[in-house]
Amino acid sequence: MNGITINIDPVIFQLGHFEVRWYSVAIMLAVVAAVLITMRRAGKRGIPGEQIFSLALWVVLGGLLGARLFHVIDRWEYYAGNPLQIIQLQQGGLAIWGALAGGGLALLVYARIKQLPLGRLVDAVTPGLLVAQIIGRFGCIVNGDAYGGVTGLPWGFIYVNPGASIPPDLFGLPTHPYPVYEIIWNGLVLLGVLKLERRFTTSGVTFLGYLALYSLGRFILTFVRQENLTLGGLQQAQIIALLAMAVSLLAIAFIMVKNRFTTKVALE
Description:
64% of the residues lie in helices and 8% in strands. With 268 residues, the chain is mainly alpha-helical.
């Protein structure tokens, strides 16, 4: 059987009911990386580093709640019968769209209260956010909770560890390594937004570019995932991706038109 065997125990060590998992370590490293990168970028945009440090707590909490909520809603049939599993965050099951929604709402409220420039703030956050997504997906590789469908490709992942979160009907079968696909795509998006911000200096364009590009990749890559279908044969993540891509592209177009109009009026 062609494929790459994944036989890593998702649990690093356990003491009684307390356990440390590779997934949890990846999430913690992702948060640290995002905060450090954002603090450095924010300083260059006139936003004090201590504000980013305070903001990080609220964004992480909002992101975790949103990520878990979206995941539970998407798999409600399972969690309705296993309600105690809803709070088992260390076992995986965090939806990135929920993390963006919850973390984004927390950021918006914090920026409003502290009167921080929203456009410059989200642009400062964007690269760190992408790095965090990349690191987090390495945790998914070990955990087996972001799996694709069965594939005959030689790079398929074959999960054989009993602790993996992959469904029983896919256990021991080569599946699309979805986390790897997203790691590669996010790396390309990171290069793209860094180039974009060098060309366009208008606040907010870097973040909107990220949102549009990530949404495009997420919509396409999710076709290899095996999640619940919701509307028109599409998965929840794909529907959100289409909406996010449409909103971000319209926002970018509006900013470009507004800038041209402002420049024209200034010249007159």
